[in-house]
Model the fold of this input.
Amino acid sequence: MIKVFFLIFEPGVAWEKIAQAKRGFAYITLVHLLPLILIGTALESWGLHIHGKIQRFQIDKPFSTQEIVTFESIQFVTFFAVVFVTALMVYKISQTFQDRLNFLQAFTTVAYGFSPLFLFHFLDASAAMHPAVPWLIGIGLVIWVLYQGIPRVMQPDPTHAFGVYLSTVIVVILTSALARVITGLYLLGYMDLQHSWLSRKLSHLFSY
Done:
């Protein structure tokens, strides 16, 4: 998780080390992504249980355990799906610029590039924090971090570098914004997961 701060404050050095390390899917997922997402999930769960969330200009009562489990389970899976789907889209799009790129390079860039967004997800533990604020701060830093990382990890041809960067940024913004809209609507009280299919399944599971 410390690497997130290096990516923000010393992106050049951090990306050079990432590129040289050439970590695999398991390491990046289990050592980097999983702890970062789990900590954010735990903090937000605690905040929802203790403080609730401002919904429609009023502080809602603390969320029930079932509501928290349902929402955080969906969000947890969504975060991972966003990373893998984004990496796949970046890989496919980037192949139109250079055919020597492999999926691990695209996944490494996206997984580490998303780090600031997952870091600022910690702010969602606050009841007064609007869901759009952490996303806006995080995505701004993601755009900056990717600018430093794409040339070092994906290594596009100089003539295609800006095209690869711009395509990646567009995909990252679209996929993360879609996930934020879905989760944000629930936090703001505009979506009901209480009676969803997943909620019923989770309720049945934890009843044993």
Observations:
- Residues 15 and 201 are 42 Å apart (CA to CA).
